[in-house]
Design a protein that fits this description.
13 helices; mainly alpha; globular; Rhopdopsin 7-helix transmembrane proteins
Length: 317
């Protein structure tokens, strides 16, 4: 793939990412806002991961998946926000073709990983609620490890074919990307090559990964809801559903923004609309995840206290 990138350098040596050039008076406020948001995302998700790591009571499948989600949120936010902060601070908005394609690849990797991981977490809740007696067997430590490794492997392999096709395109229409990072849609708009195969690959991969994980998540929650409705106690129904509410909230936000961004023709691309949905996807989900998953969780509150105690002990040493 990188040989293709090297050959393509002759077509477009570099791109200019426009970011928010239509709002010049807001460059400094935007930099400060995005910096604070990025720091909150890093510290919030790192705190969740560290709490899970240091508390043995949280070494269960649900929290293992949540720990991976925290690492994922930090990772895909870090593919876009540091570069955006650099551009807002220095006003140097030029990026090479290799850099642009690389950023797009990793962004797609982590987007794919989130789809698969959210589906796995929905399946975990389905097994815990609908097949509680078999939960220990189905979600054993070995099975959990295999699932986690598979999620990461699938995520890094899935965008390879699409990225290779994009890297093989000629970019001679313009070198200005009307976005705040190298996303697929604005990049394809600049190509003077035939993008039919690329668009077809987008829909095929979207069907294989996006729709399959969406269906798994949806079916899991249909069974969960029907199972909860059969509970005789309203208190039991509320307590059981509350264990799924945080995950369901993240699923709705994620798929709402993702489907709006990617599952549509390139001709329907709108720069302002895509910037808005991308901001929601990149910022809102990782910013809310630590709060949503830990706000009413007593186990997490105990784990955070333990983590603070460990950190204080290390500081005193």
């Amino acid at each position: 793939m990188y040989e293709v990138l090297a050959r393509n350098e002759s077509h477009a040596v570099q791109f200019t990412i426009l970011c928010f050039s239509d709002l010049p008076q807001l460059q400094v406020p935007l930099f400060i806002s995005f910096l604070l948001i990025y720091l909150n995302i890093i510290f919030g998700n790192a705190a969740v991961f560290m709490a899970i790591l240091f508390d043995s009571h949280l070494h269960t499948p649900m929290y293992v998946f949540l720990g991976n989600l925290s690492v994922l949120d930090i990772s895909y936010t870090s593919t876009t926000l540091p570069k955006l902060l650099f551009m807002l601070c220095t006003q140097n908005k030029i990026t090479s073709l290799v850099g642009c394609i690389t950023q797009m690849y990793f962004f797609l990797c982590f987007a794919c990983m989130e789809m698969v991981l959210l589906a796995v977490m929905a399946y975990d809740r389905f097994v815990a609620i609908c097949h509680a007696l078999h939960y220990t067997l189905l979600m054993s430590s070995r099975n959990c490890l295999v699932i986690v490794i598979s999620v990461w492997i699938v995520a890094f392999l899935e965008p390879v074919s699409f990225t290779a096709l994009v890297a093989n395109l000629s970019f001679c229409s313009s070198n200005q990307i009307d976005h705040f990072f190298c996303d697929a849609s604005p990049l394809l708009k600049l190509s003077c090559s035939d993008t039919t195969l690329v668009n077809m690959t987008t829909y095929i991969l979207g069907a294989l990964v996006g729709m399959s994980t969406f269906m798994l998540t949806s079916v899991s929650y249909v069974y969960i809801v029907f199972n909860i409705m059969n509970f005789h106690s309203s208190g039991a129904r509320y307590k059981t559903f509350s264990t799924c509410a945080s995950h369901l909230t993240c699923v709705i936000v994620f798929y709402g923004t993702t489907l709006s961004l990617y599952m549509r023709p390139t001709s329907m691309y709108s720069p302002k609309q895509d910037k808005f949905y991308s901001l929601l996807y990149i910022i809102l989900i990782p910013l809310l995840n630590p709060v949503i998953y830990t706000l009413k969780n007593k186990q997490f509150k105990k784990a955070f206290k333990k983590l603070i105690h460990v950190l204080c002990s290390l500081k005193n040493m």
